[in-house]
Every structure is written in structure tokens, then in C-alpha cells.
Amino acid sequence: MAATITNSIDPRDIGTPDDWIPRHPEMVRLTGKHPFNAEPPLSLLINQGFITPTPLHYVRNHGPVPKLHWDTHRLIVDGLVSKPLNLSMNDIQNFPYKEFPVTLVCAGNRSKEQNMIKQSIGFNWGSGAISCAIWKGVPLNDILKLAGVNLDDCINEPRYVCFTGADKLPNGYYGTNIPLEWSLNDINDVILAYEMNGERLTPDHGYPLRVIIPGFIGDRMVKWLSKITISNKESDSYYHYHDNRVLPPEFDAELATKENIWYNPNYIINFLNINSVITSPAHNEYILLSNLFNDKMYTIKGYAYAGGGNKVIRVEISLDDGKTWILSKLDQPELNHHIVLKRGINPIPKYWCWSFWSLTIPFYSFIRCDEISVRAWDSTQNTQPRNLTWNAMGMMNNCHFRVKINTIAQGSEFRLVFEHPTQPGNLPGGWMVKSEKSSPKLLTFSKNSELSTINSKISTFTINDVAKHNNEKDCWIIINKKIYNCTKFLKKHPGGTSPILINAGTDVTKEFSAIHSTKARELLKVFYIGDLVESQQQKIMTSETHKAKI
Ligand code: HEM
Ligand SMILES: Nc1nc2c(c(=O)[nH]1)N[C@H]1C(S)=C(S)[C@@H](COP(=O)(O)O)O[C@H]1N2
Ligand SMILES: [Mo]
């Protein structure tokens, strides 16, 4: 089975700090080789059903995975507590536990659509930054009570539960916080998890201990949890402020920094927002035009989720650009008793998992239909906006998910080919990607080429010259046939030194353009030192292949 191949090291991880972690070969890598940010191909994910097997669960790692051990790992609980704690993993495992399914979604889910409007700071998530696993762990409120924390503490001033991970990143440890009130209410099911799908956590998902906060964005669920601090101030982690925020669209990252709005409490994201995606038809799936004139039926399918414990109450499909909507059938496996394992409270007052929806229609419904769109509604009557609103981090995109239908002649047959808005990472395809290519304002390298025509004394290097500059003290890279010396930038790189060092001395065009914002592209120009030329030998080889072709 595809989902179980995990015992071997992927060749892409060799030479990176993660070369000890087995990973599923089909996961789509979104930030080059390292760090590991990956989503499963959408159809493969959906074919697994309600519970995602661990190797196919999406992964979001800001840096290298820390090497931690069950026997030596400790959890410190400190700050405004009457009894500070220092717990071993065995201590934690001996407390009463809860075990139940939770759908995790990265706030960046569907960010590639945002990037097609304008590149954000976020990289290109498709619609697979979502997965559902069974998590087992100790209720956070039990641990907090043991440390002597109680709700009365929140009466006079706010109280935050700050979480710190063991992953040391360029700007310090990954960390964030949630309000103490939320953590102390048993109904919210916040747990410190040590098992996923019946086994100990894997390194990528936070081994040996992580936070699970159902209904929240995945980003708050700190992995490799080493410390919990109760404070009257929010987490002091850089990432708590400079990540996982939705800024108003007029702010790009630079302006946000200039005007100091990263710290504005209005722009933090905690709950997930209502969202839905079409998974069938898949991208590039087709049906023969001749099928439209018989009685055959087609089932459109997809997933939907809501935030904060709200229930998805209906999902609708439009075949006429939102003029009319058809109610789909909703399947909520979370409600099955055999799936809710040990959650304490029954009947379920809060909904923590994705729903699946489907709509069976005759093939002929696709006649004169240009696109299929979907929107979901939650129990607060919230629904998705029709249009996308761009934001600097590219997060929380939940506009109507639209699949276009193209008629294509293939030999003697005509096909209706379905096209999703994007494909994850730098995979080609998607109707939004086409429209990006025709947009001249996104050709961010144009100024650079002007530079090379104005300056006639540009230095030139061959690929072999560049290859020699491949270490921490001397680090060159090639992007779009231009050479950059980024030695001085290594330590300042927001993505850490390792993504650049792994690629030092080589062509990183694909990786660089998949990850970086306009700001990063501007910054790159500072390090420009010359152009790439073919070596004599390469020239001979290319002209020979050319001759051979003739
Ligand atoms: C001089 C060359 C480079 C510059 C100026 C640069 C700049 C930046 C900047 C400004 C960011 C923050 C996000 C953004 O604004 O887009 C970033 C993040 C990042 N960069 Fe680079 N970068 C360079 C080279 C590279 C290379 C060669 C790679 C790997 C092939 C790489 C991988 C990454 C990764 C993985 C992140 C973090 C993404 C995340 O986890 O959010 N960078 N870089
Ligand atoms: N310590 C630590 N915790 C972390 C992260 C991280 O990079 N470091 N990434 C966060 C983000 S942005 C998400 S979406 C979830 C992803 O969890 P997963 O990789 O288990 O799917 O973990 C969160 N917890
Ligand atoms: Mo995330």
C-alpha cells in the first residue's frame, strides 16, 4: 500500500539535517529539499478516507527536526503557577488520557491561489495542507491544575498559555500561545499528545510530545513541546508575531514592518475559517463529450471544515457561476460512535473534524457549464467569500473553490478536461497559474536583465566555477542564469542557513522561485556578482546534440 512505504530515507533528505527521518516518497515538497514542508497529492489524500495514515499527513516544519528521546525528554511548566512542574514522558503517559480524531489544517492551506494574485511571504500550499489523525494525550487542563493554575487567575488580567518547541530556528525557538480560558475548559479538548493513529508520534509530527488544539489553525499546535509558561503577556517567540497572521491587504511584509503592525492583536488567527474544496473531478481528469448525451451520472466530491468547534451544516455547488446553488449530501464520519474513541463528553457539542460532501448529477449538466464552484456554511451561518482577498502571508484563503471545464480536441474525440486553480509547490498546471503568466507586473527579474545590458563589464562564470563556492565561508548560487554570492547573507537568511548550504554551488532557480516573496527577490539583487556562461566543453556538447537532431 502506498501509504505504508516509510522505512527508507528519501534521497532528497541525504545531506540535510533531516537525513535520519523516513518519509513517504509521494509527499509533494514545497520548499525544495529542506526544511520539510509537504502535502500529499490531493487524490491520494482523499482516497485514504476520514483518517489520514501518518506517512501521508501534511507536514509543516520551520527548520530541522530536533532529535529528541522519550527517556530524556522533559516538559517544564513554569511562569505564573503555584507549583512549577518538570515532567518525564513516562509521567505524562501515566495521567488519564483522551483519544479522538482531529483535523489539522495549516493556516496556509490554499496559499498558492493567493500567490497567483501576488507573491506573498508564504510558499505554495495547494489544497492538501489538511489531514485528519487520531490523537491521544493528556488533557492540558489536568496538567495546568496540577501546576496550581485556576480560572480565577484570569479575572484581573489576561492569562496566556505559552508553548515553546525544541526546534531552534534563525529567530529563536518556535513558540506561540492560546488564551488560558480556552485551555481550562474541558469541552475544548486541548491535549498534549504523545500518540498519533495508535503509535508514538513520528519525528515530523512532534515526537515525543506536541500540543493539539482542536478547531484552531495547525500553526498553534506546537510540536516537540518542551515548555509551557503561564504568563500575563503573550509568547515572546518571534514566530508568534511574524507568522500566522492575516494582515489587511494594503500591507505587504515591508510596510507591515515599517508600520509595526505585526503586533496588532486584531490580526492574529486562532480559529480555522469555514472552507471547502472540490476533490472530484481531480485536476486534469476528463470525460468524453460523447458521454454527455447518455444517462450516465457523475459524482462531484470534496471536503469541508469549519473552525472553533462549529459544525459544517451545508455545502452547495454552483454550475452557473454562483447564480444558483445545489445542496450536496453531507457525510460527517466524526459522528460515528466507533470513531469517537475517548473524548469524555457525549453527544458531541463541538466538531473537530473535516466533513465530506458529494453531489451526483447527470453528465449532461456539464453542457454549457464553464466551471464548478463550491461553498460551505457553518452553524453560525458563516460562509465563504466569492472572491479572494490577498494578504501578505497568503493565509486563510477560503474563497469559493472553482474548477474550470475546458473542451479539448484529442485526435478524433472531444474531451471535457477539469482544471483546478493551482497545483501545489512548483508543480505546473491550474487556471490561476496561466493567468499569472500573462501578467507583466510579476516579471520581477526584468530589472536584473536591464542591469546586465547596461553594465558591459559583467563578470561571467561557468557552472564549474560556481560549483567550487559550495560552503559556509564561500557560498554562491545560480538563479535564472545569474550568479549570487550569498555568503554574507547566510546567517541572516530567514529560512536558516541549511536550505542555502545544501544547494551551495548549484542552480536553485526552481527552489528559489517556489518559495520567495517579491521582497526576497529584491533582496537577492544585492548579492548579484555575474552571469552564467556555458564552458567550451558544454558549447561543443550542445552543438553536437544540435547537429545530431538535424
Ligand atoms: C541570496 C539568496 C536568498 C535570499 C535573499 C533569500 C531570502 C529569503 C527571505 C526574505 C525569506 C522570508 C520569506 C520571504 O520573504 O519570501 C526566505 C525564506 C526562505 N528561504 Fe530564502 N533566500 C535566499 C536563498 C534561498 C535558497 C537558495 C533556498 C533554498 C533552495 C531558500 C529557502 C528558503 C526557505 C526554505 C525559507 C523559509 C520558508 C518558510 O519556512 O516559511 N532561500 N528567504
Ligand atoms: N515546534 C514547532 N511546532 C510547530 C511548527 C514548527 O515549525 N515547529 N509548525 C506549526 C505549523 S505552521 C503547523 S501547520 C503544524 C503542522 O503540524 P504537522 O506538521 O504535524 O502537520 O505544526 C505547528 N507546530
Ligand atoms: Mo501552518
Automatic annotation (TrEMBL):
The lineage of its organism: Eukaryota, Fungi, Fungi incertae sedis, Mucoromycota, Glomeromycotina. Residues 458-533 form the Cytochrome b5 heme-binding domain. Residues 10-20 have a biased composition (Basic and acidic residues). PROSITE patterns: CYTOCHROME_B5_1, CYTOCHROME_B5_2, MOLYBDOPTERIN_EUK. InterPro entries: Cyt_B5-like_heme/steroid-bd, Cyt_B5-like_heme/steroid_sf, Cyt_B5_heme-BS, Ig_E-set, MoCF_OxRdtse_dimer, Mopterin_OxRdtase_euk, OxRdtase_Mopterin-bd_dom, OxRdtase_Mopterin-bd_sf. It comes from the Eukaryota. Keywords: Heme, Iron, Metal-binding, Molybdenum, Oxidoreductase. It holds the Pfam family Mo-co_dimer. Its EC number is 1.7.1.3. This is Nitrate reductase [NADPH]. GO terms for biological process: oxoacid metabolic process; sulfur compound metabolic process.
